[in-house]
Write a structure and sequence with these properties.
Layout: E1 34-37, E2 40-43, H1 59-75, H2 86-90, H3 104-115, H4 129-138, H5 144-151, H6 156-168, H7 170-198, H8 208-215, H9 218-250, H10 257-271, H11 277-304, H12 348-359, H13 368-373, H14 381-407, H15 422-460, H16 468-491, H17 495-528, E3 535-536, E4 540-541, H18 549-556, H19 561-594
Antiparallel strand pairs: 1-2, 3-4
């Protein structure tokens, strides 16, 4: 899923420089000066000349420039077009997603940053601080309307939830989904707090990895980037396979299933060319309402027609009661069944994997930092996030319970594949395939740019994405990326098991594990700062009065100490659930391989 910063043609100007500054430019002797004044020590380096991912920037400097940026945003709030009301956020105007609220000075700064791509890195020394910050401002145009629709675009959320309720039962399903909703909102708030406290025009936060590096070090940025790339490629693969199943069903299984999947892989080669956030915002808008239409169609069909018995082998019932609840006797299938508590399952893994499907509904936190980085007024992120999470909780849960109520153990993941009559199947599949393709395009676009910016640019000094050469390379990576995603998704026969593994290893971490983990470090660093410590742009960072365990204890048990304690146990609990979820998903996949279930490289559809 970046749907924001990484989806733009632009980005951090430092990403567009061919290679890093020469070593001399990073040292105080060549750029700035050494200074000792009272308790201040300085090795002044202008933000514009800092290399990408500079580890020498102090936490105090990040905080100083973040406070400066937030103050400037508040001072100009009347001129910012990102402050729509609630109604306008849901039904935005033509420019409501974020449009031309960029000043001439900001466009000039962005052009200078772009022009540096083919120049000597030393030329950046000629850019003034105002031009540098204007370049950063020019990239911030998104409104909370775009945020609302981008968060709710998660295509696998609503259509996997009936499967989750069927695997957990009425009571546990509602309770767990409610807990997930509350914790997801809390995690979003933690990420927003960290972003507001460390992001600035001088040092913009562009990704989850930026947060990890600033609070813990480069090792955490590497872990974040790897998991983010894995989640995105698996999401694309899952959507390709689910769309292949929908197309095969719509074609009445007359088209080879492998070809059905390949069709969507090829479609990704074209859809992946969409680049800008404004266009993605409107695509996300369309995807959300297409999802709603698909949900209405499938609910209407489920309420008046029988389940898709032909696809019973892919239903949740196949994993419950040894499959007896979906096995026909003398040509007659068992009646729809429900469970108030956990339904009987031959393995603990079945119930845990069902719970992981509910986690999919809250998988957008991975790209919350990217969303915030592109907002003209980041404070509005909370309103967009609250609206999106409320929508996900109320609408998705109603849909999940409704489908479980009418289809019970015959629910399939994704649920629109479980409709019996062909005409309703086709109607639901068409809308689902279109919205899925939009979501896959978003995920693929970001996944490619995460890899490009964090591997090709940083390690191999590839040209920036705004250059002609960078665009050509990126365009060539699209078919490679989609082909890899298709191979991964199609090669594993158990769709529900694969989505459960992705939920546990990636989605759950970014939504429930990493936010409290990052918040602990952020609170400790803020609390550890003494009144006589800080940063002065004229002299540099003040010398810290202490270090080591004494500073750590003061930071942990300072302001909001109770939140640090809660976050500590929250992180541990999330890691435990992730381990259980990964185990459950792996067991489901192992069982699928052991039973001889076919993968997607065959002509027979799993629903056939």
């Amino acid at each position: 899923m970046s749907l924001a910063a990484l989806a733009l043609d632009g980005g951090d100007p430092r990403l567009h420089v061919e290679g890093e500054p020469e070593k001399g430019l990073e040292t105080p002797e060549k750029d700035g000066h050494d200074l000792v004044e009272g308790n201040r020590t300085a090795a002044l380096v202008r933000p514009v000349t800092r290399p990408l991912y500079d580890n020498t920037i102090s936490f105090e400097e990040f905080v100083y420039y973040a406070e400066k940026t937030r103050a400037e945003e508040e001072a100009h709030v009347a001129d910012i077009k990102g402050t729509q009301g609630w109604l306008e956020m849901i039904f935005p105007s033509k420019s409501g997603m974020g449009a031309g609220n960029v000043t001439a000075d900001e466009k000039h700064g962005a052009k200078l940053a772009h022009d540096m791509t083919l120049a000597d890195p030393r030329a950046r020394l000629q850019i003034s601080d105002d031009e540098w910050t204007n370049a950063s401002r020019a990239l911030r145009t998104a409104t909370k309307s775009a945020i609302f629709y981008l968060i709710t675009t998660d295509i696998l959320g609503p259509f996997g939830l009936p499967y989750a309720f069927a695997g957990m039962g009425w009571g546990p399903g509602v309770a767990l989904f409610t807990v997930f909703a509350g914790l997801a909102i809390y995690s979003g708030y933690l990420l927003w707090t960290i972003f507001m406290g460390m992001d600035s025009y001088e040092y913009p936060i562009k990704s989850y990895g930026d947060m990890g590096q600033r609070l813990y070090g480069p090792w955490l940025r590497f872990i974040f980037n790897v998991l983010q790339a894995l989640q995105l490629v698996f999401n694309v693969g899952l959507i390709v396979v689910s769309n292949g199943e929908a197309l095969s069903q719509a074609a009445k299984f007359k088209l080879c299933f492998a070809v059905c999947c390949l069709v969507w892989c090829l479609a990704g080669f074209i859809l992946g060319q969409v680049r800008t956030l404004q266009k993605f915002g409107w695509l996300a808008n369309a995807a959300v309402w297409l999802n709603v239409i698909c949900m209405i169609i499938t609910m209407g069909a489920a309420a008046h027609t029988a389940p898709n018995y032909l696809g019973a082998s892919q239903s949740i019932g196949a994993a419950l009661n040894n499959g007896t609840s979906v096995t026909a006797v003398n040509g007659v299938y068992p009646a729809v069944q429900h469970s108030n508590g956990l339904p009987p399952s031959p393995t603990f893994a079945g119930s845990v994997n069902a719970a992981m499907q509910a986690v999919f509904s809250y998988g957008g936190a991975m790209i919350f930092p990217e969303f915030m980085s592109e907002m003209r007024y980041p404070r509005d992120f909370l309103k967009g996030m609250w609206a999106a999470q409320s929508f996900i909780y109320l609408v998705y849960m109603f849909y999940g319970l409704f489908m479980y109520g009418y289809q019970g153990q015959y629910v399939i993941n994704p649920s629109f594949l479980g409709i019996g009559p062909y005409n309703f199947q086709t109607a639901g599949n068409v809308f689902a395939m279109i919205s899925s393709a939009i979501a896959a395009a978003l995920y693929g676009n970001i996944g490619i740019k995460v890899i490009y910016n964090n591997i090709f640019v940083e390690w191999f000094h590839a040209p920036g994405l705004t250059t002609k050469a960078g665009k050509i390379i990126w365009t060539g990576m699209i078919p490679v990326y989609w082909s890899i995603a298709f191979a991964i998704g199609a090669g594993i026969p158990a769709f529900a098991g694969l989505s459960g593994i992705v939920s546990a290893i990636c989605i759950l971490q970014f939504t429930f594990t990493f936010p409290p983990f990052l918040s602990i470090a952020y609170n400790m660093k803020r609390n550890a700062m003494l009144p006589e410590e800080g940063f002065d742009p004229a002299t540099g960072p003040y010398a810290r009065k202490d270090k080591g365990p004494k500073r750590w204890i003061r930071g942990f048990f300072g302001k909001f100490w109770w939140m640090n304690i809660f976050n500590f146990f929250y992180t541990g609990g999330a890691l435990t659930l992730a381990a259980l979820g990964a185990y459950a998903g792996i067991e489901i996949v192992k069982q699928a391989f052991a039973s001889g279930a076919s993968n997607s490289f065959v002509c027979k559809s799993p629903l056939q």
